Amino acid sequence: MLDAEAFKNFPANPMSVLAKNLIWDMMTIEGFAWDYLDSLKLNRDYRIPDIMGEFNMADIGTYSHNEIQLCWTGISAMNDELCAVIEYRAIDNKVEISLAGLKTKGTEQYWGTVWVSLKTGLIESAVMYGGTIQEIEVTGLTDKFLVKTIRELWVDKI
């Protein structure tokens, strides 16, 4: 999902970045729920060793994780299922985007919680919070400017 080919039918405009970002956020939540559960110990931080470093975001720019930590904080009921409660945080990540007429460079933080059924392994619920500070350069404008974005994502089983 990081390959530009995965998005070949998306509109070629800056607004499609938001849709791609939503797909990547869900991919991240699924990875935290399913890929590392067997590595987690109750109330012990787990640093994901294989995610650090820079990668290409479908030919729109680059993203570089500083460090991602997961923590299994307990068991709770969600949607009548007993669930592992996994908290995650990724702080001080770098992001650069380059589109026609627009370039950004900045930092992003994101964190949240995912509830994974102990019986089925399915995600019962998840939340993600994030924020960026970015320097924006727009073709035709003489000055760069700073932008702060904040986002919240909820995943609820229906």
Describe this structure in words.
The protein is mainly beta. Helix content is 12%, strand content 54%. It contains one helix and eight strands, in the order αββββββββ. Strands 1, 2, 3, 4, 5, 6, 7 and 8 form an eight-stranded antiparallel beta sheet that branches. It is elongated, with a radius of gyration of 17 Å.
What's the average pLDDT?
A: 89
Helix- and strand-based class?
mainly beta
- Specify the biggest β-sheet: 8 strands, antiparallel
Q: What is the CA-CA span between the terminal residues?
A: 25 Å
Q: What's the alpha carbon Rg, rounded to whole Å?
A: 17 Å
Number of helices: 1
Short description, anyone?
With 158 residues, the chain is mainly β. It contains 1 helix and 8 strands.
Helix and strand arrangement:
Elements: H1 16-34, E1 46-47, E2 53-56, E3 61-65, E4 68-78, E5 81-99, E6 102-117, E7 123-138, E8 145-156
Antiparallel strand pairs: 1-4, 2-3, 3-5, 4-5, 5-6, 6-7, 7-8
Give short descriptive properties of this protein.
158 residues, 8 strands
